[in-house]
């Protein structure tokens, strides 16, 4: 696999999704050879949330690999919030810096993606240029081509799967609630033992969205921009539910942990009994790191939970576009994806379409280790679609209006 | 003469230029003018958007309350500490203890304090058994709506600073003589301090007090780590607006930054007004000559308060050390279940970069600040301290969030990329005034006879400076270096904003990790962050002692 012979590329291109491509396979292949050549010697500034040490170490490994294989080094710019990097690109555009920008590759999702796409701040479309995109299901409307209902149109490339789950300490909680109404009953019976991250944070907003999806009378309206729907009618059940649960939250719902990591710390300290995550493997990972008790387990809401794919995108003014593409492509290789899904490394679920993998690639995934707190793909149940990004913005605004005094 | 004017203009340009650039950008943005962004609609729309933000009034109240409470209590406790221990053996023992607190960066103190007073912090772990707590209490001082945790954190940093400044200033005043005179008139010790010493001390410590007030009203890193979050203090609101992906938020952030600056200016005006008021009414109070009895216990209470705070601070730093070598420490155990160096080893790959950056910025800015400060002091004319001379303290008096975002814009337009130059320059704005503060007293107190003698022996201006003045003043210079390093290491906002996240230091990493789940890794960064300035302080204290061994006159 070290250096695929040109002929093999040719065959793959011809057999693979060649038909869907505008360019002829030969020129696409030649383009990629050119990209690889341009990329050699570049250092890619990958701006990615830096709050998870396992993800950080995985990114470090990716950098070692791309350096060794393609001569592309990675500098991980650890963000505390993705919007920091978006602001940076906005500022650069404002100052007229249309090339040699400081961000080469960006881990991005949802509202941040929409914001950048609307302001023409993204390079692309580039996903189909990546040879490894042949392992993805790129049919319109698939998870890999939609980000919070917004079509990605090839402006961002997927790399990991995310799903909303709750986690809890099975030594303290016997029968955890599996739906939002059940959570209300549970919170009434156990005042002060549940909370959620502040909705200004992505995780807190996701919790509100999960509650909205479960409680709203007609979830299909959430798939369209909020402007086209009756916001009051759609969110009314959510607020009446929230008004009832809030007094029973940790510290009476007057203050909230800043993010999921802080919430996990509360769970580990026994300050609350239920936490949440957007990564089904994070609980097993935290146990291994001594950050949660051995008895911590994951629960998925009975009616399914919202999930999405995490993407990487390239800003329009990136200095090392070629290098960024090589990294995005390597992230999609079965080798990188299988390592990512390894619970001893990261445990994040792969975005590859298993039907498109060959025997050796599939074997990589089948030999991965298991852990008691790691749910199987089946146990995760149904994935509910993310609402349109405008819902998240409106929801958070409405929450602040109601509960920030 | 030309050289003198040139040097002074250079210093002002380097220190005040960026401030003006940043303030201008902020000012225009606050009224809708940001042409680079295509925003050309001058008006009050950003203010409307700002006032429309939920919880803004609470944010302002919170800012005013925490800032003013921390400053008043800090000032009172520092004064009580200095007055109560002046000339006593306990004073001589405790005063050196202030230095380590001064050296510890704000973020490290805040992280350590949170490890202590959080619901699952060390304090409640120790109390869990006697109080029969099976779960961490749901009451907490960290992030509490009243901002008590934030005030405590601010006090831990402000009291040592104010106490040291007061001690240094008292050295120039004939305090002993005044006290004897007052006591011979029948005033108690405490009364004498309040009625005689404080009014004479105040002009010397006005500037440091205003610096403390401005910091307390506008700090970001401590407010992020200890302050309430829903809503947070105004400076954090502005930072959030500034980092919001929506374009229009930058304008709203400009309005917020201006409001923040307005709050600080109003507070300054309040101080000035109080000063006038006390000058008038205080005279009446003084002339009445009451032998107030209540102040003695007040002073004693202050001394106790300071000791409690020191205990908290010491515990906070200890907590950092303990957490950094912990593997598992489940609630409610009093001490960790398992120790391990894993946090140091695991993060070893990660912290070397930020560690290097911290050292780099501290090195560059301290050297630059020292050179500029000496140039500034050497070109100063005796007995003429003009308004202009005070202007170099402006970066410390204005809220950082008020001009740094604007400065980043301005730098970008000038083609100064987010990089080492931009970050170092931004650090310098804050390192220089502190270095100057340390040096200004010793420089003015320098015995000119030494220079005259050197001159009469044929030494030129440069050799008089390098071979006579600097060696004699080596103690204050080392102290200034120590302060410079500590200030640079502690900078959070300048590094974050001017470095565009590319140049992370121990401080930016520690603050962002503190919102993560792993206390052990956070503790490693906070420890490293504390170690650098502590080491420099130790060197700064020990070197003059060694040098002074055979030079009696340097010892005083």
TrEMBL record, chain A:
<keyword id="KW-0732">Signal</keyword>
<feature type="signal peptide">
    <location>
        <begin position="1"/>
        <end position="22"/>
    </location>
</feature>
<dbReference type="Pfam" id="PF13416">
    <property type="entry name" value="SBP_bac_8"/>
</dbReference>
<dbReference type="InterPro" id="IPR027020">
    <property type="entry name" value="YnjB"/>
</dbReference>
<protein>
    <submittedName>
        <fullName>Putative thiamine transport system substrate-binding protein</fullName>
    </submittedName>
</protein>
<dbReference type="InterPro" id="IPR006059">
    <property type="entry name" value="SBP"/>
</dbReference>
TrEMBL record, chain B:
<keyword id="KW-0813">Transport</keyword>
<keyword id="KW-1133">Transmembrane helix</keyword>
<dbReference type="GO" id="GO:0005886">
    <property type="term" value="C:plasma membrane"/>
</dbReference>
<feature type="transmembrane region" description="Helical">
    <location>
        <begin position="138"/>
        <end position="156"/>
    </location>
</feature>
<keyword id="KW-0472">Membrane</keyword>
<keyword id="KW-0812">Transmembrane</keyword>
<feature type="transmembrane region" description="Helical">
    <location>
        <begin position="12"/>
        <end position="34"/>
    </location>
</feature>
<feature type="transmembrane region" description="Helical">
    <location>
        <begin position="62"/>
        <end position="85"/>
    </location>
</feature>
<dbReference type="InterPro" id="IPR000515">
    <property type="entry name" value="MetI-like"/>
</dbReference>
<feature type="domain" description="ABC transmembrane type-1">
    <location>
        <begin position="56"/>
        <end position="269"/>
    </location>
</feature>
<feature type="transmembrane region" description="Helical">
    <location>
        <begin position="389"/>
        <end position="412"/>
    </location>
</feature>
<feature type="transmembrane region" description="Helical">
    <location>
        <begin position="523"/>
        <end position="546"/>
    </location>
</feature>
<feature type="transmembrane region" description="Helical">
    <location>
        <begin position="418"/>
        <end position="440"/>
    </location>
</feature>
<dbReference type="InterPro" id="IPR035906">
    <property type="entry name" value="MetI-like_sf"/>
</dbReference>
<dbReference type="GO" id="GO:0055085">
    <property type="term" value="P:transmembrane transport"/>
</dbReference>
<keyword id="KW-1003">Cell membrane</keyword>
<feature type="transmembrane region" description="Helical">
    <location>
        <begin position="472"/>
        <end position="493"/>
    </location>
</feature>
<protein>
    <submittedName>
        <fullName>Putative thiamine transport system permease protein</fullName>
    </submittedName>
</protein>
<feature type="transmembrane region" description="Helical">
    <location>
        <begin position="355"/>
        <end position="377"/>
    </location>
</feature>
<feature type="transmembrane region" description="Helical">
    <location>
        <begin position="97"/>
        <end position="118"/>
    </location>
</feature>
<feature type="transmembrane region" description="Helical">
    <location>
        <begin position="246"/>
        <end position="273"/>
    </location>
</feature>
<feature type="transmembrane region" description="Helical">
    <location>
        <begin position="294"/>
        <end position="323"/>
    </location>
</feature>
């Amino acid at each position: 696999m070290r250096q695929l012979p040109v002929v093999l590329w040719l065959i793959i291109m011809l057999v693979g999704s060649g038909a869907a491509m505008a360019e002829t396979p030969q020129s696409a292949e030649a383009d990629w050879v050119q990209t690889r050549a341009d990329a050699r010697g570049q250092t890619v500034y990958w701006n990615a949330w830096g709050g998870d040490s396992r993800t950080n170490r995985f990114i470090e490994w990716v950098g070692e690999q791309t350096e060794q294989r393609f001569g592309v080094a990675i500098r991980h710019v650890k963000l505390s919030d993705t919007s920091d990097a978006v602001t940076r690109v906005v500022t650069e555009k404002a100052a007229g810096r249309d090339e040699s920008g400081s961000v080469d590759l960006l881990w991005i999702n949802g509202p941040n993606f929409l914001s950048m796409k609307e302001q023409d701040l993204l390079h692309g479309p580039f996903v189909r240029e990546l040879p490894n995109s042949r392992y993805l299901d790129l049919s319109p409307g698939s998870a890999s081509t939609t980000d919070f209902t917004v079509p990605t149109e090839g402006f961002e490339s997927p790399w990991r799967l995310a799903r909303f789950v709750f986690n809890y300490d099975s030594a303290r909680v016997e029968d955890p609630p599996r739906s939002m109404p059940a959570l209300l009953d549970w919170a009434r019976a156990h005042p002060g033992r549940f909370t959620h991250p502040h909705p200004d944070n992505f995780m807190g907003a996701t919790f509100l969205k999960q509650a909205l999806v479960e409680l709203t009378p007609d979830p299909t309206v959430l798939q369209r921009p909020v402007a086209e729907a009756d916001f009051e009618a759609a969110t009314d059940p959510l607020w009446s539910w929230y008004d009832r649960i809030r007094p029973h939250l940790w510290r009476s719902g007057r203050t909230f942990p800043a993010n999921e990591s802080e919430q996990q710390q509360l769970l580990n300290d026994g300050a609350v009994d239920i936490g949440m995550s957007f990564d089904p493997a994070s609980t097993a990972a935290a146990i291994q790191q001594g950050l949660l008790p051995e008895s911590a387990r994951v629960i998925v809401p009975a009616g399914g939970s919202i999930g999405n794919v995490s993407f990487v995108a390239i800003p329009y003014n990136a200095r090392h576009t070629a290098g960024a593409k090589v990294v995005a492509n390597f992230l999609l290789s079965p080798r990188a994806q299988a390592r990512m899904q390894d619970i001893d490394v990261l445990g994040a679920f792969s975005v590859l379409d298993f039907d498109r993998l060959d025997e050796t690639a599939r074997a990589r995934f089948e030999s991965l280790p298991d852990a008691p707190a790691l749910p199987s793909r089946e146990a995760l149940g149904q994935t509910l679609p993310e609402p349109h990004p405008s819902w998240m913005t409106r929801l958070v605004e409405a929450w602040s209006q109601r509960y920030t005094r | 003469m030309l050289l003198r004017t040139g040097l002074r203009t250079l210093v002002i340009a380097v220190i005040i230029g960026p401030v003006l650039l940043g303030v201008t950008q902020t000012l225009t943005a606050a009224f809708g003018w940001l042409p680079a962004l295509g925003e050309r609609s001058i008006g009050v729309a950003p203010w409307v958007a700002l006032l429309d933000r939920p919880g803004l009034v609470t944010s302002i109240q919170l800012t005013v309350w925490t800032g003013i409470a921390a400053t008043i209590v800090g000032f009172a406790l520092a004064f009580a500490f200095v007055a109560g221990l002046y000339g006593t053996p306990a004073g001589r023992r405790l005063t050196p203890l202030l230095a380590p607190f001064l050296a510890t960066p704000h973020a490290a103190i805040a992280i350590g304090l949170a490890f202590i007073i959080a619901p699952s912090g060390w304090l409640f772990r120790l109390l869990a058994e006697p109080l029969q707590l099976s779960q961490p209490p749901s009451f907490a001082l960290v992030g509490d709506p009243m901002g008590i945790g934030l005030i405590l954190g601010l006090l831990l940093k402000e009291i040592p600073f104010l106490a040291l400044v007061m001690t240094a200033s008292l050295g120039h005043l004939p305090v002993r003589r005044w006290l004897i005179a007052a006591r011979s008139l029948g005033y108690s010790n405490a009364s004498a301090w309040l009625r005689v010493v404080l009014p004479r001390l105040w002009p010397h410590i006005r500037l440091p007090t205003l610096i403390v007030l401005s910091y307390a009203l506008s700090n970001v890193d401590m407010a992020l780590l200890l302050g309430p979050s829903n809503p947070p203090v105004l400076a954090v609101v502005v930072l959030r607006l500034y980092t919001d992906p929506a374009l229009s938020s930058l304008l709203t952030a400009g309005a917020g930054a201006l409001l923040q600056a307005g709050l600080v200016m109003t507070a300054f005006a309040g101080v000035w007004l109080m000063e006038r008021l006390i000058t008038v009414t205080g005279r009446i109070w003084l002339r009445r000559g009451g032998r107030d009895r209540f102040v003695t216990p007040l002073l004693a209470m202050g001394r106790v308060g300071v000791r409690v705070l020191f205990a908290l601070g010491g515990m906070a730093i200890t907590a950092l050390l303990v957490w950094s070598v912990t593997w598992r420490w489940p609630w409610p155990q009093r001490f960790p279940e398992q120790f391990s160096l894993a946090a140091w080893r695991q993060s070893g790959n990660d912290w070397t970069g930020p560690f290097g950056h911290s050292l780099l910025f501290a090195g560059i800015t301290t050297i630059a600040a020292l050179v500029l400060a000496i140039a500034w002091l050497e070109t100063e004319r005796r007995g003429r301290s003009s308004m202009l001379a005070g202007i170099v303290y402006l970066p410390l008096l204005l809220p950082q969030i008020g001009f740094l975002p604007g400065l980043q814009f301005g730098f970008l337009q000038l083609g100064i990329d987010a990089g080492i130059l931009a970050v170092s320059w931004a650090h310098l704005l804050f390192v220089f005034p502190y270095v100057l503060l340390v040096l200004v007293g010793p420089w003015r107190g320098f015995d000119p006879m030494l220079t005259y003698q050197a001159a009469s022996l044929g030494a030129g201006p440069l050799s008089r400076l390098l071979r006579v003045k600097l060696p004699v003043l080596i103690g204050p210079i080392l102290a200034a270096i120590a302060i410079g390093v500590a200030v640079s290491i502690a900078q959070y906002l300048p590094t974050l904003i001017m470095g565009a996240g590319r140049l992370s230091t121990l401080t930016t990493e520690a603050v962002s990790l503190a919102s993560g789940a792993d206390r052990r890794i956070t503790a490693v960064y906070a420890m490293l962050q504390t170690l650098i300035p502590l080491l420099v302080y130790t060197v700064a204290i020990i070197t003059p002692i060694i040098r002074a061994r055979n030079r009696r006159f340097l010892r005083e």
